[in-house]
Amino acid sequence: MNEILSKLVVVSLSISLWTGRKKLSPEDLGLDFSKLPPEKLATLGSKKICDPEKLAVFSALKRRAERQCEAVGVRFLGGYAIPEDKADEVMKILDGVRDEFEKEKQEFLSEYDRSLREWIDANPEWAAIIEKGVEPASTAARRLGFAVQAFKVKNIDGLDKGLNEHASTLSERLIYEINQQARQAWEESYKGRPSVTRKALRPIKSMLEKLRGLEFLSPYLLTLAVQVEEVLASLPKSGPIEGRNLTSLIGILHVLGDLPLDEVPAEEEDEVAETILLETRSAEPVSLPSEWFF
């Protein structure tokens, strides 16, 4: 396991957001507290003291950082295990996202009071409720945060049982994430279509890049990556993809996504089944923890 860990860098994202929401109280709505059910049975929810559109950029930047890690890595120890040779590139991108987050934060804070006033003015009938929940800009400043750390993990003799057990599941975790990506690609770009454009190849190429980067986790991953490359190499270099070429793509997508054949049109079932058989004949089966599917 030391050899595998030596090829990985763990990237940890610590990104906190300020939601601009406050707990809604009975007094906000003029309700008699004594006539309400206890909180263990029901709550009144929250009120928005800030325009959600002003905060959307922070959620988008957080998601962008997560997508960058997911593109080349697999979840591990609360962060993402990424190939060591990808670490510099990933960290440069994440540093850029962090700088953008900080810039947006400073702009948001500089306009904080005016934005809140505009939100109150846009909702005059609820002005009193909003004003009661307003927090100082310093509160939003404390809660909006973006930090990223990268570190190596090393075994400690005699104390590494848990780490080894966790690391031994990395290949299965990667296969699970590839399954989800393949199923999403199938639903969004392939299902029910007699032909696809070359744009539909992007998710398969992304999955291939991820498999190649982490192929050292298991011989099965290398086998799978080679099979995907062979299918992609057999496609025409331009134009729409249809007929037997599309059938081959659907076959490899079903291998990646572990999709049932009943998702395939009846007239293509035999050809796709043949492709799946060819693509999987030399691959070792992988058992995935059932809890990952819920």
From TrEMBL:
<dbReference type="InterPro" id="IPR021496">
    <property type="entry name" value="DUF3150"/>
</dbReference>
<protein>
    <recommendedName>
        <fullName>DUF3150 domain-containing protein</fullName>
    </recommendedName>
</protein>
<dbReference type="Pfam" id="PF11348">
    <property type="entry name" value="DUF3150"/>
</dbReference>
